[in-house]
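Can't paste images in this forum, so I'm doing it all in text. The chain is below; anyone willing to post the predicted structure tokens underneath?
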Amino acid sequence: MAVRVQREDFDLGAELAALTAGRTDIGGVASFVGIVRDRANGSGGSGGSGGSGDPPVVAPPIVAMTLEHYPGMTEKALAEIEAEARRRWPLTASLIVHRYGRLAPGDNIVLVATAAAHRHAAIEACQFLIDWLKTDAPFWKLEETADGERWVEARAEDDAAAARWREADGRRTAPASGESPSKKV
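Text version of the structure:
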């Protein structure tokens, strides 16, 4: 069970090999790798539309994304949600690696990997962790385009995905929208 917040890139193959090394009790591993896109959410080009049958909204390409965080606070928050995943599912191993700093389109941002004796626990726990990371992890994202910079806000779809885990068993696993002092991404 590990949480890392780092500037440097990670190697997916090496991380998964280390997660499972010497473990014969693992029957399934689920992983998610988040990558910087070249377009903002809802913009044209790489996909997305304006909704309601409207033509796609074309935004300028993203040149870079800068992720900021508070050292110490971020690791503690990620460790707490990783512990919640272990309480909910019988995980044999888990890993969260989240990068910070200036990243370019195509760069890795985040790795979430979960391992369990059975695939359902690994898959559900991985989805739970990434849904929470998208909405309540204390990171701030600044998108840089040719038109300037803008701070990224949480999307309604991401909030809805995280809310289903809060409602699943009546427990709250992370601060509800508006309760966290951190800006959500």
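The first strand starts at residue 2 and ends at 6. The chain has four helices and eight strands.
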